[in-house]
Amino acid sequence: MSFFFEKQLFKQLDILCQGVHPGGVTAMSFVLGSNYLVTGGATGHVRSWEVGRRSGALSLLTTVKEHKGAVCNVQVAKDQREFLSGSKDGFCIIWDATKYA
Predict the structure, then answer these.
(1) pTM of the full structure
(2) Domain boundaries, the chain
(3) How many C-beta neighbours within 10 Å does residue 35 have?
(4) What is the 3-state secondary structure (H, E, C) of the chain?
(5) From residue 3, how far is each of 57, 77, 84 by CA, in Å?
(6) What is the pLDDT, as a whole number, of residue 17?
(7) pLDDT tens digits, residue range 56-77?
(8) Nearest to 31 by CA among 74, 62, 69, 67
(9) Which residues, at least 6 apart from 42, have a Cβ–Cβ distance to it below 8 Å?
(10) Do 70 and 44 touch, CB atoms closer than 8 A?
(11) Alpha carbon distance 83, 90 (integer Å)
(12) pLDDT digits (tens, 9 = 90+) for 1-38
């Protein structure tokens, strides 16, 4: 697994995740200014991560799997207590992040 995390001069965030989902990362969301990241994958898995503030290293917090198709969208609530995933299987799921932390 490799991860690249860099804040540029204009506070833009560039993120590159490789090897964190079988079949690749198909969706990603984060709350600006936080170290919480949610990714979705081609196999229907949704994962939450803590991003090291200095190192940029990913620490896996949660893996959940209910989707039968690739995850095409994930969104994180600003308070980071919930995240939503949408999939090519036609379903959207609202996850309680506090339950899986």
Answers:
(1) 0.78
(2) 2-100
(3) 15
(4) CEEEEEECCCCCEEEEEECCCCCCEEEEEECCCCCEEEEEECCCEEEEEEECCCCCCEEEEEEEECCCCCEEEEEECCCCCEEEEEECCCCEEEEEHHHHC
(5) 6, 23, 23
(6) 59
(7) 778 889 899 999 999 999 999 9
(8) 74
(9) 21, 22, 23, 24, 26, 70, 71
(10) yes
(11) 17
(12) 334 444 432 233 344 556 678 888 899 998 777 888 89
Amino acid in position 34:
S
- Nearest partner of 65 among 35, 28, 91, judged by Cα: 91
Please say whether the beta carbons of 21 and 47 come within 8 A.
yes
Two tokens, residue 90: 């036609």
Which residue reads 């207590």 in tokens? 81
